[in-house]
């Protein structure tokens, strides 16, 4: 299927993706660039599972924003920039987690109950949202979040890696829609760290 696009130039692929929403052209773009991006992310994070997640997130953001892009430069450079931003965000989140661990015990005790309730509410809402996913899609998504690679998931479920990618993309899209109101509420009302 994507072999048809294997001879296409990057510029042609970009036009097909950004102007025609051509998924097979996007898969060819993914095939050409994902491996290098994973290697870059592994060098920066030191963790293969985190690197793969960051690359998946990069391609997901690229696909979701494809109609807004006006890429005048090399697509590899553009994807590298997107990945770099995702890596920076990842480290920023990790730093926030570490900072939280150093808070005074009194502050932690004061906030413990409300944070615990918020976490439980969010977790419960997340679990309910997961149940709305089709069964196979849900199974693939859960395995991906447990750190299994696309290859491992594909082998264990006897499906192709492309099908695994499609299930993860579908799950993220559905969860984003399902949880958008709760996330907006949480961002507005949770205390800043």
TrEMBL record:
GO biological process: DNA-templated transcription initiation
Gene Ontology MF terms: DNA binding; sigma factor activity
Keyword Transcription regulation in annotation: yes
Cell membrane is among the record's keywords: no
Keywords associated with the record: Sigma factor, Transcription, Transcription regulation
Domain HTH luxR-type: 130-187
InterPro entries reported in the protein's UniProt record: RNA_pol_sigma-70-like, RNA_pol_sigma-70_dom, RNA_pol_sigma70_bacteroid, RNA_pol_sigma70_r2, RNA_pol_sigma70_r4_t2, RNA_pol_sigma_r2, RNA_pol_sigma_r3/r4-like, Tscrpt_reg_LuxR_C
Entry's family note: Belongs to the sigma-70 factor family. ECF subfamily.
Protein name: RNA polymerase sigma-70 factor
């Amino acid at each position: 299927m994507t072999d048809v696009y294997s001879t296409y130039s990057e510029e042609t692929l970009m036009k097909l993706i950004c102007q025609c929403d051509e998924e097979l052209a996007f898969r060819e773009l993914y095939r050409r660039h994902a491996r290098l991006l994973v290697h870059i992310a592994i060098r920066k994070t030191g963790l293969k599972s985190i690197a793969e997640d960051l690359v998946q997130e990069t391609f997901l953001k690229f696909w979701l924003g494809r109609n807004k892009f006006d890429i005048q430069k090399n697509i590899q450079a553009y994807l590298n920039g997107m990945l770099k931003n995702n890596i920076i965000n990842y480290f920023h989140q990790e730093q926030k987690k570490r900072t939280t661990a150093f808070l005074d015990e009194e502050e932690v005790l004061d906030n413990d109950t409300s944070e615990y309730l918020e976490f439980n509410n969010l977790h419960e809402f997340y679990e309910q949202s997961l149940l709305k996913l089709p069964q196979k899609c849900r199974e693939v998504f859960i395995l991906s979040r447990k750190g299994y690679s696309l290859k491992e998931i594909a082998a264990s479920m006897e499906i192709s890696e492309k099908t695994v990618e499609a299930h993860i993309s579908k799950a993220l899209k559905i969860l984003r829609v399902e949880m958008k109101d709760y996330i907006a509420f949480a961002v507005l009302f949770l205390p800043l760290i």
